[in-house]
Structures are given as structure tokens and as C-alpha cells.
Amino acid sequence: MALRGVWHLRKLVVSYSDWGGSSRGIRAFMDSRIPSFKEANPHLELETELIRGQHPHLKAFCKNNNERVVCVRNMTPEEVLLHATRLRNALGRKVVKLKTRHVTKHLSVQQRIICSSRTQNLPKTHS
Amino acid sequence: MAHRRSLHSLARLISSSSTVAPRCTVKSLASILPNHFSTAAISSSSDCILPDSEATFWCSSLFSRNRARHFCSSSRKDDDEGEDEEDGDEDDDEESEGDYSDEDEEGARESSDSNSKPKPPPPGPVDKVARAAEIGYKVVGKLRPSEKVFKPYEPVYAVVQIGSHQFKVSNGDTIVAEKLKFCDINDKLILTKVLLLGSATQTIVGRPIVPDSAVHAVVEEHALDEKVIIFKKKRRKNYRRTKGHRQELTRLRITDIQGIAKPEIKVDPKPTKPTKPSKPTKPSKPTVEEQEQVAVAA
Predict the structure, then answer these.
(1) In a domain, B284, yes or no
(2) Is residue B181 predicted with pLDDT exceeding 60?
(3) Please, which residues bridge with residue B289 across strands?
(4) Are B51 and B153 found together in one domain?
(5) Which residues of B touch A120 (CB under 8 A)?
(6) Mutation site for A-interface testing, chosen from B179, B189, B221, B294 by largest number of A Cβ within 10 Å
(7) ipTM here
(8) For residue range B36-64, what is the model confidence (pLDDT) as tens digits?
(9) Does the pLDDT of residue A57 top 50, yes or no?
(10) Can you give the residue ranges of the Ribosomal protein/NADH dehydrogenase domain (chain A) (predicted)?
């Protein structure tokens, strides 16, 4: 995600096993897809990590000091790429249910006028 | 009608024998007929009701139907064979899925494409633009780091439609729409379906869209919403299904609203504290405020 044009994913760690069967897809991903992914996202720091005997996963470090881990065992290279892209596109914030689809800091212009005119026209209670 | 029925039954019988030539007259039919059907009756019927030409037409049409049926059965056989072939190929695909080398993948894709139903081709650039316009946006280009499109707040608002959702937005707001497929992060968009524009003194209502107006936005995020659990249950039937779903969403930040006169923001200097509290004066009567103008776009 990019907030006002600033990318929030800083670092992506691709951990895999050179022996395990569940890492077959991610090994193909590393051979075929990682160079182009790196080219498309020059702001991103990409690291590979060999952990033998473990299932593969992607670990994303965000600008807000959050990290998110996605397991990619037994996935095809396309699926791994999809998850990597989602991590790039996503915000590092915690996923919560949306209460509103519209976030604004400012009260409506016309509503402000209506409110002010109402307060001015209020009848006096105490003389 | 009775004669026609008899002809139908005749044709069925002959088709069952399957040794008859496709085109024949009623007379030749009569010669082939089995014993239980009286030839005399048929010949008399053909003589009295159907002229020869019409009878031949009926027979030929019936035979052609039968032939078509025959072909259908043969085609079914062909289909079955084709399915068998497909099954075989699918097995091959499964075998080839073991290794994720590029060549194997491409081969598997080709074979699967050739066997399965022809998939619609991926949308081209023109098609993408058309589909995006249908939803209500247009991709302008990438946001460069040197560009400064994020402006401070302006007291103007607009109602825009994206897909089937309407949003009341002003400069600097963020909105969450359903996923916009044909744009990437940091793309600049123009939201074309502007339904209403408003400021403190003016309102422009579109019918339904305000012409010569646009809302500019930047794509900030493609993300998944929180997981929703779909739980189905039927009582006393031992039936329970649980399914999860995460909706794909796109977050946009509004950068500019065009098509309405923007009032200048008055920057008031910081109010200085009065030294002595003056006597409370009677509040003057509220001045007649500027009448709000409402215009309807042509």
C-alpha cells in the first residue's frame, strides 16, 4: 500500500526449504518470478532465507513496525506471486471490519451553514 | 391425421430395419413393408390423400430425421471418444503438475486450453478502458514521486458513483470501493460519474451526471476485508456447511474536485485575548445569509 504516494511495505523475506516438497512452488517462484517482481518494485528490500525442513512462508515488514506472515506451502508460483503482491498492496494495519466506507476529517460545508443558522435563530429562554 | 400417423409408424419401422435407402416413394415402401401391415391400405391412402410428390416429401423428411438421429448417435459416440481423450489428457496434466518448470507449465496450459471450453480472451487495453468507464473511472497514469497532487482541504464536495456505490467526498477524503480491477497502486484516476457538486453557496445537481466535472483520486490500497463466515444449517438433517469469504476492496484518496467554483479559504490570524471583557452586547439580529443557489445541470 502507498499512503499519499509513500510505500508502506519495506522488506519482504522469502523463506524456503531446498529439500521439502511443499517448497517446490516457491523454488520455481524464486527462479522465475522474483527478478521481475524486484524490477517492478525497486523500493522493496527482498531477501531469501533458507530454512531446511520447514514449510515456506513470506514475511512482510511494514513501515508502521508491523509484520505479517503468510504460509505458502504447496502453492504454485502464480499463487505465491499473488500473495506477495497482496502483501505489497496491503496496509500493515490490523484487519478490522469496516464500519464505514468513507473517512473524512471535515464536516460538510453546507451542513456547517445550516447548523450555524439554526443556533443563531434559537429563541432565548432566559432574559 | 390418421394417414400421417400411419406414415410415421411406417418410417419408424423402416428406420429400425436400417437397410432402406433414404429416399424412396410410397410404392417402394410398400414393397418393403412387413406382413402385418397391409400394402393395399397404404397404397390406397397415398392415392386418395397424398399426391406422390407430397408423399415423397414426407418420407424424405422422415428419413432425413432418422438420418439425423443416426448421426446424433454416432456423434455421441464421437463425443464419448473425445471425452475419453480429454480424460487421458487431464491425467497427463496431473502427471505434469509434479514439476513446476516453465516449459511443463506452458504445455499443460496449452493442453488444458485446447481440451476445455474456449475461455474468453483476457481483456485488451481498449476493452479495459471501456469496462472501467462503465464502472465510473478512468486511469490517467502513474503517480510520480515528484508530483504533488495531495492538496489541502477545500470547502467543496461532490457525490460520485463507483460501480453501484455512491460516495459524498471532498478533497483529502479516503473511500473504500469494491475492487477496481484495471488499476494498480499509485495510479491516478478520474472518477467520471459525478452526480452532484456542492459548495457553501452553490449546488449543481446532475441529471444524472454533471457534465464537465471530474473528481480526481489516487489508488492507495488493494486489500481484503475482514473474513465473513457463512454458516448454513438444516435442523434434524445432519447438515452443516461453513464457508469463509474475504471481499476484495480498493481504497482511494480524493485529490481534487473539478467543475465548481471554489471559494477561497480565509486564513484567520490567531485571535488575541481581549484585555478587558467588554459588556455583553445584545446579539444583533441574524443577517440574511446568502441565498444558496441550486442549479440543475443540463
Answers:
(1) no
(2) yes
(3) none
(4) no
(5) 286
(6) B221
(7) 0.84
(8) 444 444 444 444 444 444 444 454 444 44
(9) yes
(10) 18-91
Residue B247 inside a domain? The answer is yes
Would you state the pLDDT for residue B149? 82
CB contact under 8 A, A110 and B172: no
Pick B170's closest partner by Cβ from A106, A120, A121: A106
Is B96 within a domain?
Answer: no
| The pTM of the whole model exceeds 0.80 | no
Instruction: Give domain status of residue A67, yes or no.
Output: yes
Residue A109 counted as domain residue: no
**Same structural domain, B71 and B130:** no
Label the pairing between strands B293-296 and A57-62. Answer: unpaired
The 10s digit of each residue's pLDDT in B11-28 is 675 655 544 444 444 444
Higher pLDDT, A67 or B289: A67
- pLDDT above 90 coverage of chain B, percent: 36
Contact B126, B166 (CB under 8 A): no
- What residues make up the domain containing B26? 2-77
Q: State the total domains in chain A.
A: 1
Is A38 domain-assigned? yes
Is the pLDDT score of A30 beyond 50? yes
Q: Is A43 within the bounds of a domain?
A: yes
Q: Which domain, by its residues, includes A27?
A: 2-89
Tell if the CB–CB gap between A105 and B200 is shorter than 8 Å: no
Q: Which residue, among B283, B290, B254, has the nearest Cα to A110 in the 3D structure?
A: B290
DSSP B116-178: SPPPPPPP-HHHHHHHHHHHTEEEEEEPPTT----PPP-SEEEEEEETTEEEEEETT-EEEEE
- In this structure, what C-alpha cell is assigned to residue B1? 391425421
CB pairs under 8 A between A and B: 104
CATH number at residue A60: 3.40.30.10
Determine the 3-state secondary structure of A73 from DSSP: coil
Question: CB B175 to CB A102 under 8 A?
Answer: yes
Quote the number of domains for chain B: 2
Q: How close B61 gets to chain A, by Cα (Å)?
A: 56
The shortest C-alpha distance from B155 to chain A (Å) reads 6
The answer to whether B155 contacts A109, with C-beta atoms less than 8 Å apart, is yes
